[in-house]
C-alpha cells in the first residue's frame, strides 16, 4: 500500500513537472509572450489542477501564429494632415500599413443611420462584397442583411460572408443554407471541431468589416443584430460607434479580409500581412488601419495604447463595455493621470456580462485613486474608442480587456484629421453629460476576493 501511494505521488509530481515543461517550451519556442498575471495564472493552474490545466493549455494556450520578424526602417513622416510622428513610426515598426487619405470618412453614432448606411453600401456593390462579423443575429437586422446579400448575388456581385463560429453559434443553419443556395460563399472562423494545427479554439475573430468593391468600407463595434442598431420594447439600442470610408482605408480593409478568409479555410501557411500598398489619394481625411491579433507578431493596439499613455499631454478619453486592462496598461494610465493628464473612462453602469462587471472593479478604483475619472453610462455601451490629446483617435472592435488586447483578431482605425478627432471629442462630452461618477469606495473582503478570482481566471487565461 505504501509503495502504491509513493508511486502515485511520484507519478503526479512527474505529470506536474512535465506540464510545466510543456508550458515553458511552448511559450519560449513559439514566442508566446504573456502578461505576468496570465503567466502566473497558467502556472498556478498547472500546479494546482494539472489534469485539467495541461490539456486546457494544449487546446487554448497558444496566442500567436506569427513569429517576430524585425526589419530596420528609417524614420518616416506622416502624410500632410496625418498623425503624430511617434504614432506613425511606432506602427511602421510593427509592420503595419501607413496612414493614407480618403475621399470620405464619417462617423455613425445613431443606430438606424448606421444600419441604413450598411444596407446602402451592400446594395451599391458592383463587383464584389466582403462581410465579416462576430455575431450574425436571428432577428430583423440579420434578416435585412440576408436579403441585401441575396440581392447582391442576383446582380452578379461576388459575395463572401465570414462569421465567427463561436460568436455566431446561434445563427440559424437554415439562414446560412439559404445564403449558400443563392451563391453567397460562407465560412465559419475556427469552428468547434477543427484541426488544432489550423488554429486554437480560444482565438476568435472579433473584427467587424464590410467592404464593397475594395474601395468603400463600413467598420466599427457593431455586430449584425438588432440590439446594436434599434430600440426594442424592453430596452433601448446599445450605445455604439461605426465609421465609413471611401478610399485607401477600404483597400487595406479588403486586404485584411482576404487574409482572414484564407485563415478561416485552415490555410495559415503562407498567410502574412497585406502586401505593400501605394496610396492613390493625396488629400482628404487621413486614417490608418490598425489590426491586432494572433496574425501579428506584436500586440499592436496594446503597444499603441501604452505609448500613447506616456506621450499624452492633455487628455485621454476612453469608452469600452468591459474595462479589464492588464497591469502594464492600467499602470501607464494611472501614471498619466498622476502627472496631470485628464484621464476619463466611460463604461456602462451594468454591462451585458456580469463577470466583466465584477472583474473591472479593481482597475476602476486604482484609476480613480490616481486622479482619473470614471463615468457610468445609464445604458449598455458597446462602443470602443480612445482619444489622445487633439491629434489621435482610435475606434473599432477592440475592448479594453485581456481577451481583446491579447487573444482576439481585432481591428481599430486610427483617425488623424482634426475634423474626425474633434467629432469624437464632442461625442464623449455628450455621453459624459448623461453619466454618473463611479463610486470608488473599497469593497468588502468577499467582494474583493471575488473580483480578484474572476479577473485572474476569467480574463487572463
TrEMBL record:
Highest taxon above the source species: Bacteria
Protein's GO biological process: cardiolipin biosynthetic process
Membrane-spanning parts: 6-27, 39-60
Keywords of this entry: Membrane, Transmembrane, Transmembrane helix
Cellular-component GO terms for this entry: membrane
A Pfam family assignment: PLDc_2
GO-annotated molecular function: cardiolipin synthase activity
Protein name according to UniProt: Cardiolipin synthase
Organism: Diaphorobacter aerolatus
Amino acid at each position: 500500500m505504501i509503495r502504491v501511494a509513493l508511486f502515485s505521488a511520484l507519478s503526479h509530481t512527474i505529470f506536474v513537472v512535465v506540464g510545466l515543461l510543456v508550458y515553458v517550451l511552448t511559450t519560449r519556442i513559439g514566442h508566446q509572450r504573456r502578461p505576468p498575471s496570465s503567466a502566473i495564472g497558467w502556472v498556478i493552474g498547472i500546479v494546482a489542477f494539472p489534469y485539467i490545466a495541461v490539456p486546457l493549455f494544449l487546446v487554448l494556450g497558444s496566442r500567436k501564429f506569427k513569429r517576430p520578424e524585425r526589419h530596420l526602417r528609417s524614420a518616416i513622416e506622416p502624410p500632410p494632415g496625418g498623425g503624430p510622428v511617434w504614432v506613425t513610426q511606432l506602427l511602421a515598426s510593427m509592420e503595419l500599413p501607413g496612414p493614407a487619405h480618403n475621399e470620405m470618412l464619417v462617423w455613425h453614432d445613431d443606430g438606424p443611420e448606421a444600419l441604413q448606411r450598411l444596407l446602402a453600401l451592400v446594395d451599391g456593390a458592383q463587383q464584389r462584397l466582403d462581410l465579416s462579423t462576430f455575431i450574425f443575429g436571428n432577428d430583423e437586422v440579420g434578416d435585412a442583411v440576408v436579403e441585401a446579400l441575396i440581392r447582391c448575388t442576383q446582380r452578379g456581385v461576388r459575395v463572401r460572408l465570414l462569421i465567427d463560429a463561436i460568436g455566431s453559434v446561434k445563427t440559424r443553419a437554415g439562414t446560412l443554407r439559404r445564403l449558400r443556395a443563392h451563391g453567397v460563399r460562407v465560412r465559419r472562423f475556427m469552428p468547434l471541431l477543427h484541426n488544432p494545427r489550423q488554429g486554437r479554439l480560444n482565438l476568435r475573430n472579433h473584427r467587424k468589416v464590410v467592404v464593397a468593391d475594395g474601395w468603400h468600407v463600413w467598420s466599427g463595434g457593431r455586430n449584425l443584430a438588432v440590439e446594436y442598431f434599434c430600440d426594442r420594447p424592453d430596452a433601448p439600442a446599445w450605445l455604439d460607434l461605426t465609421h465609413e470610408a471611401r478610399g485607401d482605408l477600404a483597400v487595406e480593409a479588403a486586404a485584411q479580409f482576404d487574409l482572414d478568409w484564407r485563415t478561416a479555410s485552415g490555410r495559415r501557411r503562407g498567410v502574412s500581412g497585406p502586401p505593400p500598398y501605394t496610396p492613390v489619394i493625396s488629400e482628404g481625411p487621413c486614417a490608418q488601419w490598425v489590426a491586432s491579433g494572433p496574425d501579428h507578431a506584436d500586440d499592436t493596439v496594446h503597444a499603441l495604447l501604452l505609448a500613447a499613455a506616456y506621450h499624452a499631454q492633455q487628455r485621454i478619453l476612453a469608452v469600452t463595455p468591459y474595462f479589464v486592462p492588464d497591469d502594464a496598461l492600467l499602470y501607464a494610465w494611472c501614471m498619466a493621470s498622476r502627472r496631470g493628464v485628464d484621464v476619463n473612462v466611460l463604461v456602462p453602469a451594468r454591462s451585458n456580462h456580469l463577470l466583466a462587471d465584477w472583474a473591472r472593479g479593481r482597475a476602476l478604483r486604482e484609476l480613480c485613486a490616481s486622479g482619473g475619472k470614471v463615468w457610468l453610462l445609464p445604458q449598455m455601451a458597446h462602443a470602443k474608442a480612445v482619444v489622445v490629446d487633439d491629434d489621435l483617435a482610435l475606434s473599432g472592435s477592440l475592448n479594453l480587456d485581456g481577451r481583446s488586447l491579447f487573444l482576439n483578431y481585432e481591428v481599430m482605425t486610427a483617425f488623424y484629421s482634426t475634423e474626425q478627432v474633434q467629432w469624437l471629442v464632442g461625442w464623449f462630452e455628450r455621453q459624459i453629460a448623461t453619466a454618473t461618477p463611479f463610486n470608488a469606495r473599497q469593497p468588502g473582503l468577499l467582494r474583493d476576493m471575488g473580483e480578484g478570482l474572476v479577473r485572474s481566471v476569467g480574463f487572463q487565461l
